[in-house]
Design goal:
Blueprint (H helix, E strand, L loop, with lengths): L4 H28 L10 H14 L20 H26 L7 E3 L4 E2 L11 E2 L5 E3 L30 H12 L5 H4 L10
Antiparallel strand pairs: 1-4, 2-3
Helix pairs in contact: 2-3
């Protein structure tokens, strides 16, 4: 039944009050918790610094999402890629060091992903175009160490139209995180059942 009249206004009012209360709680936690690591001054570093404070302050959020843009490097990729990957590595190290110092690393799983992979060969503009496969990193005290999947082959006849072939469906990674870490059924979220990757 659609919301009409007063019911819609009540819903909007409740939602606004909930958001205001949540924002106030986030501000209070961020003000009272001190980070235990030094972060890069980048957008990613600043975002992870805040997430570490919220985890350290006991905010009951189960999933945090931060992003790092700039990887759509179709031209002059070399310097940009090096800078972005350095920032990713430095920011992630600070975040992990912070959570270890808090004593919270055993409660946290970190996953990186990208919306696209990259071609093996560069293009005429010194960049790379979108490809079919990309690595994902999963970090945590309870994560199974090492490569999950097979090393990709760069032999020309093993490529698919110049792209590395993926050998683990990203939805299997999501299913593994949902089922083994978040303890929730993955099929309703992913639209069907995928074999969960044994991450932990």
């Amino acid at each position: 039944m659609p919301m009409t009249g007063g019911r819609a206004v009540d819903f909007i009012t409740r939602t606004a009050l909930d958001a205001q209360q949540s924002s106030e709680e986030v501000r209070n936690i961020a003000a009272r918790v001190q980070n235990q690591a030094t972060y890069p001054g980048s957008q990613l570093g600043t975002s992870l610094k805040l997430v570490a404070k919220l985890i350290g302050g006991g905010l009951p959020t189960r999933v945090y999402y931060v992003s790092q843009g700039g990887y759509d490097t179709h031209t002059n990729q070399l310097g940009t890629q090096a800078r972005l990957l350095q920032d990713l590595g430095d920011s992630m190290k600070s975040f992990v060091d912070d959570l270890k110092a808090q004593g919270n690393m055993q409660r946290v799983l970190v996953m990186t992903f990208s919306e696209f992979g990259r071609r093996v060969s560069d293009n005429a503009n010194g960049g790379t175009d979108h490809g079919a496969a990309a690595p994902m990193f999963v970090v945590g005290n309870r994560v199974k160490a090492g490569l999950l999947g097979k090393y990709p082959s760069l032999v020309p006849q093993d490529l698919f139209q110049g792209d590395v072939k993926y050998n683990v469906d990203f939805r299997s990674v999501y299913a593994g995180v949902l089922e083994s870490w978040l303890k929730t059924k993955s099929a309703p979220i992913l639209g069907r059942q995928f074999e969960p990757l044994p991450l932990v």
